[in-house]
Specification:
single chain; about 325 residues; mainly alpha; Farnesyl Diphosphate Synthase; 17 helices; about 0% strand; Squ/phyt_synthse; Isoprenoid_synthase_dom_sf; Squalene/phytoene synthase family protein
């Protein structure tokens, strides 16, 4: 079954709205590069703007939210997101699970090397950027980055989630963990606990579960339907059905539980969002857009053929309004 560990490590399928997570490893230097001239000589005209451009193209909702941060914090967020996408893309970039395991192990070792004494920085765009990020206020430590890598092995398998709790745990370890790391970058002097921790957890679940709804069609085609086993069985969906895109009515029925869970997370966020500091908006504000995605998903006739995608302008306006009102 899917989400069972394959030879021992961890991915995202996506608990985040992308079926094929884009590679953002485009530039060689991080926002805090110590020797920019040297990097330019080796890599040409690639700069940290490459990360930002890729994020804007491939993950526009996070990019839009990041614009509400000061320039230095925004650059740190972009580096964090680049790492997230770099490891998230692994399972879709390989043809065999064992190759995916090798790549994820490489990523884990690269993180450990980065935090070793003395540190060793791999010659790779994303890890060179992380080397500059790690001394920034609120930067993730090696344990957190290792958890991000560990979470990725789940998508090297096939089939639905064994249980709904497994799906929720998956979302917490992917979209949720990323949101917590981003929060620390935006509010490094604040301890994430109590109602604020509840709000960030709810925001991560709201976004992550909605992301699975958004990515339903490509995830099914890849053999990784974002359903719990009982949801698929209860709707009468078999492996051949989700691989071939048959039974759209059954797919809608199977998705009902996932959409309900996402809406429940949205309600939990609404009840706790007042505890979030204003500076955290850049890290969690894009969760506000999950409501529009869920509304669009509810209007889809064939989940195997259509993806919910509210207009960009609609999302921009919703995010701006949320930033003014604090109503994520």
């Amino acid at each position: 079954m899917r989400r069972q560990r394959v030879a021992g490590i961890g991915q995202v399928g996506e608990g985040d709205g992308h079926s094929r997570a884009p590679c953002l490893g485009l530039c060689s230097q991080g926002p805090y590069g110590r020797d920019r001239a040297r990097v330019h000589r080796r890599r040409g005209d690639l700069t940290e703007a490459g990360f930002a451009d890729a994020l804007k193209r491939d993950d526009p909702d996070r990019w839009m939210a990041a614009q509400f941060a000061p320039a230095d914090v925004r650059a740190r967020l972009v580096t964090l997101y680049a790492f997230y996408h770099e490891i998230a893309r692994v399972p879709d970039a390989v043809s065999e699970p064992v190759i995916g395991e090798m790549r994820l192990n490489w990523a884990r070792e690269a993180v450990r090397d980065l935090y070793a004494t003395p540190p060793k920085v791999r010659r790779h765009d994303v890890y060179e950027a992380l080397a500059d990020l790690k001394a920034a206020p609120g930067a993730p430590d090696s344990a957190l980055l290792d958890q991000m890598v560990e979470a990725r092995a789940a998508d090297l398998g096939q089939g639905p989630f064994p249980t709904r709790q497994d799906r929720l745990d998956y979302v917490d370890r992917t979209a949720g963990l990323l949101m917590r790391a981003a929060f620390r970058l935006c509010a490094p002097d604040m301890t994430l606990e109590g109602r604020a921790a509840d709000a960030v957890q709810a925001a991560g679940r709201f976004w992550g579960l909605t992301g699975l709804v958004r990515a339903f069609a490509p995830l099914c085609a890849a053999g990784r339907p974002p359903l719990a086993a009982d949801e698929a069985a209860g709707a009468g969906l078999t492996e051949s059905d989700w691989l071939s895109g048959r039974k759209p009515d059954a797919a809608r029925a199977a998705l009902a539980g996932l959409m309900n869970e996402a809406n429940e997370a949205g309600e939990a966020l609404a009840a706790s969002r007042a505890a979030l500091p204003a500076q955290a908006f850049a890290a969690v504000g894009y969760a506000r857009l999950a409501r529009g995605y869920l509304r669009a998903a509810g209007a889809i006739a064939d989940p195997f053929r259509e993806r919910p995608e509210p207009a960009l302008l609609t999302r921009q306006l919703a995010l701006s309004w949320a930033s003014l009102t604090g109503r994520i």
